[in-house]
Amino acid sequence: MSKQAQPNWSARSGLSFVLLFGAVNLFADMTYEGARSVTGPFLGMLGASGFIVGAVTGFGEFLGYALRLVSGRWADRSRLYWPITLGGYVLQMASVPALALSGSWPVAALLILLERIGRATRNPPRDVMLAQAGKQMGRGWAFGVNEAMDQFGALVGPLAVAGLLAWKGDFHLAFALLALPAAITLLLVFGARASFPNAGRIEREPQTSQVGRYPPAYWWYCLGAGLVGFGFADFSLISFHFSRSQIVANDWIAVFYALAMGAGGLGSLIIGKLFDRLGMLVLVPVTVLVAAYAPLAFFGGFTLSLFGALLWGIGLGAHESVMQAAVAQMVAQQRLGSAYGVFGAIFGVAWFVGSAALGALYDVSIAATVAIAVIAQLLAIVPIAIAARRMRAR
To answer: In angstroms, rounded to a whole number, what is the distance separating the alpha carbons of residues 93 and 184?
Structure first.
């Protein structure tokens, strides 16, 4: 591929691309987070047991991260960053409204898994393009802006679904109406493809030892991310605790989740700007702060539990923004899609295993659950600091 085929990003064009993709993800999150906020009760209404609900949603999260290994490597080898991204969005956005047509839990479960597969497919190549576009404006800020818009959609979607269910009480109607933001998502992402056709194009360069392998800092960073993920309880466990302990009323749990998404969006903007100024070391105090989510959420009353949910949202926002931006600082562009795939898979598998372990501990001891969550998060500081120091040395 010739150099003329490469995108010539400026700070202005990069910002335009980031904002356009931010709009794409705003409506995408409005669609799938709106659906995810009620998939548990919906499966239960269709006759699924508690075990089936947990297994389907847990396996979906696992697929949503593990399959990034495949899509990331596929994108790097084929250089088809746009086609793979578009295919992932189409699959994801088609799966959510289709839930309105499902009359049995196996059909609904299949659609839920397809939605996760679509997200896994589009994320690594999309992140490569965002990393390219954000180089001039600051990658931390680029991913932070994208995540802030993303999380705004994640706030609006569940609230809209909750309001509709309170009004009509019809799950199928709620999923059908999510076809509107899904259609807007697809119009915007195909518009982005038309406006920035060269995004994601990378010049083929001779393989060297530096291009062909990931630096040690990257693996230290993946270890830190894995420990963060292990100690990061899924919100389903947190909401289960809220409901079981009767600390938070059921109709407030969805509001807590929406507020957590809003906190994640705002936090990603602030942390992203600090990342561009201070580098990876900013993740150390962020990790310490987010570790406090567990004692607040599991030991606190209504107010402290709210603060715990907000910190949980900030942690999720940091992972989806700044922690993604840091990967682009470590790995050559020729292997960035694969690097995102490996990083996402490590975080996702650790999150899945950790959530299962924390869930099992919860039935025995809430104190043990909180202790393991906090210890895992704090242990992550060491490899993250090592990675930051190695990057600074480079």
So the answer is: 10
